[in-house]
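PT: before anyone asks, these are the final sequences, not the draft ones from last week. 650 residues across everything. Please model them as a single complex and drop the result in this thread when it's through.
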Amino acid sequence: MDTEQLKQKILDGDRRALARAITLVESGRADHRSMAQELLSELAKHKRQSLRIGLSGTPGVGKSTFIESFGMMLTALGLRVAVLAVDPSSARSGGSILGDKTRMERLSRERNAFIRPSPSQTHLGGVARRSREAVALCEAAGFDVVLVETVGVGQSETVVAEMSDLFLLLLAPAGGDELQGVKRGIMEMADLILVNKADGPLKPVATRTCADYAGALRLLRKRPQDPEGFPKALMVSAVEEHGLEQAWEEMQALTAWRRENGHWDRRRADQSCYWFDQEVRQALLARLHTASAQTAMAALSGQVAEGALTPAAAAEQMLQDHLKG
Amino acid sequence: MDTEQLKQKILDGDRRALARAITLVESGRADHRSMAQELLSELAKHKRQSLRIGLSGTPGVGKSTFIESFGMMLTALGLRVAVLAVDPSSARSGGSILGDKTRMERLSRERNAFIRPSPSQTHLGGVARRSREAVALCEAAGFDVVLVETVGVGQSETVVAEMSDLFLLLLAPAGGDELQGVKRGIMEMADLILVNKADGPLKPVATRTCADYAGALRLLRKRPQDPEGFPKALMVSAVEEHGLEQAWEEMQALTAWRRENGHWDRRRADQSCYWFDQEVRQALLARLHTASAQTAMAALSGQVAEGALTPAAAAEQMLQDHLKG
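LR: through. Structure below.
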């Protein structure tokens, strides 16, 4: 299948073509890369947009169950839903989030749902680009909602937030002390905080946790991209399927407001520029990874370690002799 | 004064020459930069080493008082002490740590002490290089101990740890909950945790805090560069000048062990290679800061924001047309 055919099938919403195109953007081969670039450029002309929802939560908060229940609710509303994952740890652990589709058994059987496990990658930069391009492919394939899941480790939340229109933080009910466990930076990224497991014996704890976070959110400075009352903290039960409709209504309200007030378009443009900048930086630094650059770095490192060259003098030599700009 | 004269005066321990040389490495001017490089390369040949002690602690833990008391104790032992600061926030706040020498009134009057406020810099990369080079100048000037102070913000602790032989974390007495406030990564960097203000009414709290941290340190994996029992948590009172001798004895014991076991030299070599690598990366990325690169980036960003180019396609164009390697 050539790029033109692949493009057409993706625009027609063909899931196998979509899966194949994602494999293409995940490939490290140069010919695949240039095909992927061409495909993405062509598809971008159609300017199709999904609602891209980023979702973060540490292991154990019930992310898979939430995505399953929330995704099923959306498909029941007639919406098409794609689920992707950004998992910088998968290269190390071998495993990957969403690796086991059985964790979302019902949703994976849905005709209007598309679930793609995260690829194993070597570094977050690569993970970020491939995920972002997979999101773009899902948008071109006409999905109404693209959910991008991540585990809350290191920079992965920033990466996901920079490719999402809405950012959700999923939390488990917990004592007041653990409020501190959520980094301020992550709180500030969240559009909605969802306290999951608001069911059974945990319900009272969930209620308190939700109130704590609502209080904490009120202490944050109001952001220009938010209408009155946002960001919000809500309770949900993914298992009992409670609170999901309300959460969806809040997401829609927030989205509508941002579209009307120009924030949606501005944020999309800012994100594209952010990724452009990131790509340029990564490409520059990639010049250090060629075999000849590595050899030169190793030789100079040896001299630096012995004290024969200062770090700055060695760097100057490296730049002049091997990385001439 | 030419570079040769400046070099000789620094080697003679002349404080005014040292101050002048630090001003030189802090300068952004190209001619200053090349003079600084030459000077540092020449001085490096003398292979003089100080004990470089990194010290981190959030505002309010009593860093200045500690440095004053600890520094006075060292000079009383006949040692020469230099105090520098790494402050990535100074560019923003305008103020700088150590900016006010009156905060260390006694030490600043000591003939065997040299205190240098942190320069105002625009980014942590610049702060890091200049601080590292200032440390090298102090070493060449024959100081026995170089103390490098930083506020615990962002990456500044890593920067200081990478230019230190020992890393101290200064803490205030606090309830058990606040134990969580110290990031695990920082705990893992520390060679000694010093709980300050172990005096007056805070003494019982300090005792408990110290025991809590000692317990937390025992949970960390033993590091190859540590003899049995390290890292340690100790109580000190900078105001009452208690515990400082003991802390100094521990530092000397740790240093002696590391020298004997080859960790000292290896760590120094590793640090130099780390900074070499950082310098190369920064120099590569600096190519984005030229006027012509900025103009090209802005133009391409405009097309990316409009959706006329994908981020990856724009990056490719930037690399090919403006940053040809």
